[in-house]
Amino acid sequence: MTELLYYKDGYLKSTEATVTEIRDGKVVLDKTIFYPECGGQPGDRGTFGQWRITDTKKDKDGTPLHVVEGELPSVGTKSVLTLDWNHRYFYMKEHTAQHLLSALMFHEYGIGTVAVHQGEDILTIETDRSEINDDILLSLEEKAIDEIIKSRKVYQVDMDRKEAENLKMRRSIKVDDETVKVVFISDLDAVACGGVHLSSTSEIKEICYRGKEQIRGHVRTIWSVGEKAREYRRENERAVRECGKLLSSDSHTMTSTLEKFLSEDLELRKENRELKKKVIELELIERKED
């Protein structure tokens, strides 16, 4: 059985490991710091000595399977397993941000989470609502930023199933195990989860609401987290500055200036159509006279 070191220390970046099995063309190790793809979170990647690991999957029995590029190492090979830390840490931020947002949605607005997906640029959270006002989601963004500033402790505890059920968490326990991993955001939330998380909400750094869409009759909310949130805000600020230059306007009057230009454009298009119509009529009259 593989020792899952990511549960003992989610910040461990490297360790020595040994190949114990080759299963379905993937490598099984005696211990690993690589989290396998699960619950909307991508699998880890990195290196095992000279070998490049491009992904980590979870087998039916829960064993992490390391996807190795090219020729596989043989059973018994011992080497250093090293995470692509930037990749892992970003998804730890997204995952913890999802816990924070889902917790606030539920505790502040009674909105439940149906499904989540963590992507390279955006985090999506599908809710149990068919409609959610943008004002609520913008307020949610502000509350999430407040919780980041408060630097709430995030920690995971292995609990007896009955003990975990007595917590009356916002989401039912999805696994059948008698021992359940429960993730706590101090004085805010508790939920059963087998992912890898930050140790503090402060490490999320930034959260940005990007919009919403309809899926399966539910509202799916769209967010950016950490450096991706910062990049998104800065790109929007750059676009506003550039548009301001083109419109000779500032951010406060840009909308009204653009509306004025569009209105004038519509009038000019209308006048242009009328002129074209008159030209055609004059041409027809001239042809008749000829």
Topology:
Elements: E1 3-4, H1 5-8, E2 14-23, E3 26-29, E4 31-32, E5 46-48, E6 51-58, E7 64-68, E8 78-83, H2 85-109, E9 113-118, E10 123-127, H3 134-150, E11 154-160, H4 161-165, E12 179-185, E13 189-192, E14 207-215, E15 218-225, H5 227-247, H6 254-289
Parallel strand pairs: 1-4
Antiparallel strand pairs: 2-3, 2-8, 5-6, 5-8, 6-7, 9-10, 10-15, 11-12, 12-13, 14-15
Write out key terms for the chains shown.
single chain; 290 residues; alpha+beta; 6-stranded antiparallel beta sheet; 4-stranded antiparallel beta sheet; 6 helices; 15 strands; 37% helix; 30% strand
Shape: elongated
Helix-strand string: EHEEEEEEEHEEHEHEEEEHH
User: How far apart are the termini?
Assistant: 98 Å
Overall pLDDT level: 94
Strand content: 25-35%
Order of adjacent strands in the largest pleated sheet: 3-2-8-5-6-7
Fraction of residues in helix: 25-40%
Report Rg: 27 Å
Q: Oligomeric status of the shown chains?
A: single chain
Quickly count the helices.
6
What profile does the largest beta sheet have? Answer: 6 strands, antiparallel
Would you count the extended β strands for me? 15
Q: What structural class do the secondary elements suggest?
A: alpha+beta
Which consecutive residue ranges, at least 5 long each, have pLDDT under 50?
Answer: none
